[in-house]
Amino acid sequence: MTPKQDTLICVVGPTAIGKTKLAIELAKAFNTEIVSADSRQFYKEMTIGTAVPSAEELQAVPHHFIQNKTIYEPYSVGDFETEALEKLYELFKINNTVVMVGGSGLYVDAVTKGLDYFPNVSEELREQLNAQLNEEGLESLQKELEQKDPSYYKKVDLQNPHRVIRALGVIRTSGKPYSSFLNQEKKERPFKTIYVGLTADRETVYARINKRVDLMMEAGLLSEAKTLMPYKDLNALNTVGYRELFDYLGGRFTLQEALSEIKKNTRRFAKRQLTWFKKNKAIHWFDYRTPAKEIIHGLKTKNALQ
Predict the structure, then answer these.
(1) Cβ atoms of residues 191 and 100 within 8 Å
(2) Bind-site residues
(3) Which of 196, 199, 252, 262 could disulfide-link to 247, CB 3.0 to 4.6 Å?
């Protein structure tokens, strides 16, 4: 009998859609473990604002790459690719099915397809770019990107400081356009990937986001932001939910304005997630209300894991 091929079931979709819950049900059904590909949940100092799975959820199934890093040390998508692949090969020795879950499209692709090669950007340069962002605003970085790489400038989400800073870091390090490093030949992986996507109409996604933000505030997000305020210039903290509250604590916004900005920016983030994932034609999309047992049945009966 031919052994089954090692298979990674990858659960993707926009924020607040229910990925964690489905991933846990899938892991239980296949008696396996979960690898998280949510770049916001790697850091142990950030809990409420990153919607880390609850203690009960973490106990239900073994999770990996949840709060396993610190905000004080640099951690790149390339680092994650290396460590996640090592963990997968370790898990595949025990069970030839593993579940991965996350809304960070770049991190998902890093594991399933491999990254384009980019030169290493020093932490000193990253700090310089983040300082420029804080002192001069995003527009100054956007203008530099437009001048040095007009091709990537037309494609990138210019409202995402992470993406703009990442591109400029590569440009300043290499002296070459960021776009010249894109679309290299992808790596073959020794495992099969099955993508399961959760989706909903835009109004539902936005309503779920608004509700999650309100629940985060009730759970103490503002207090969490206050404790992290001294470290707001660190790259890990330049993220939705914290950035806006840092602006409130710095006197730029009222609390209500900050809350409104969090919801707006999270909705924009969800839109970008969907745009990213919709490019992947291999994703099997399900309405977020689809019972987990129906998805599990489909995976088991349609020879998807053979």
Answers:
(1) no
(2) 13-20
(3) 252
| pLDDT for position 305 | 54
For residues 189 and 112, the answer to whether their CB atoms sit within 8 Å is: yes
> What residue segments make up the domains of the chain, in order of their start?
7-114+192-301, 123-181
Please, what CATH class does the domain formed by 123-181 belong to? mainly alpha
Percent of the chain with pLDDT strictly greater than 70: 96
CA terminus-to-terminus distance, the chain: 12
**How confident is the model at residue 116, as a pLDDT?**
73
Binding residues for substrate: 15-20
Distances (CA, A) of 13 to 180, 189, 200, 246, 270: 29, 22, 10, 28, 8
Q: Region 48-75: what's the mean pLDDT?
A: 95
Per the CB < 8 A criterion, the answer to whether 129 and 234 are in contact is no
Residue the block writes with tokens 């806006």: 244
> pLDDT grade, residue 219 (50/70/90)?
very high
Q: Say which CATH architecture domain 7-114+192-301 belongs to.
A: 3-Layer(aba) Sandwich (3.40)
Least confident of 73-77, 79-83, 115-119, 251-255: 115-119
Pick from 86, 92, 113, 111: which is nearest to 3 by CA? Answer: 92
pLDDT tens for 248-297 read 999 999 999 999 999 999 999 999 999 999 999 999 999 999 999 999 99
Q: Which of 125, 161, 133, 167 is nearest to 147 (CA)?
A: 167
Report the C-alpha gap between 161 and 165 in whole angstroms: 6
Residues 296 and 29: their CA atoms lie apart, in Å, by: 7
> Which residue is it, tokens 């009966």?
301
Q: What is the DSSP string of 256-294?
A: HHHHHHHHHHHHHHHHHHHHHHHT-TTEEEEETTS-HHH
| pLDDT on residue 6 | 95
Q: Is 33 helix (H, G, I), strand (E, B) or coil?
A: coil
Which residue is associated with the tokens 């109004």? 203
